[in-house]
Amino acid sequence: MPDEQPPRQQPTILITGTPGTGKSTHAALLAQQTQLKHINIGDLVKEKGLHEGFDEEWQSYTVDEDKLLDELEPVASAGGVILDWHTCDIFPERWIDLVVVLRCDHTVLWERLEERKYPLKKIQENNESEIMQTILDEAKESYAEEIVVELRSESTDELETNVDRIMTWIKAWKRDRVEKVDE
């Protein structure tokens, strides 16, 4: 019989969405209120050199997906983490317990990306992606429907409501796991 991993005590949550929708803010707030570790994938890629170089036109690193997945495997499969990235389809389904797709009105998003001093082409590309709900569709195609949640992220009130909602989900997830282990 192959080595069986003990049941996870903490979930792995993926917070995804178009750049500028509030992924890192949500993840950081959740990490402060839980025992979950926030992993900003973009930062991890830079820190650990998990890329194939820097793309000047897009002002971003070209991620080496194999290196990234190898780096994340032990942590994400064990649970207790919040993965924060603008894409989701590369992560194995077995790692992820909840996918939160943050959405934002395209005019609000445009302003946020301008504030970040993104090049116009990058703002346009990300705005189009948000309008076409590219990341939401990607999440729905990559994971079971029941674990994908779409949340609006345009205001501080929505941020607080979203974090409360995810906290409620985490409590229910833990309760369900404890009940299954006790049976």
Automatic annotation (TrEMBL):
Query: What residue range is the signal peptide?
Result: none
- Protein's GO biological process: ribosomal small subunit biogenesis; rRNA processing
Q: Where in the cell is it found?
A: Cytoplasm; Nucleus
Positions of region (NMPbind):
40-63
Which PANTHER family is this protein grouped with? ADENYLATE KINASE ISOENZYME 6, POS9-ACTIVATING FACTOR FAP7-RELATED
Q: Which organism is it from?
A: Schizopora paradoxa
Q: What is this protein called?
A: Adenylate kinase isoenzyme 6 homolog
Q: Which InterPro entries match?
A: Adenyl_kinase_AK6, P-loop_NTPase
Pfam families with a match to the protein in the record: AAA_18
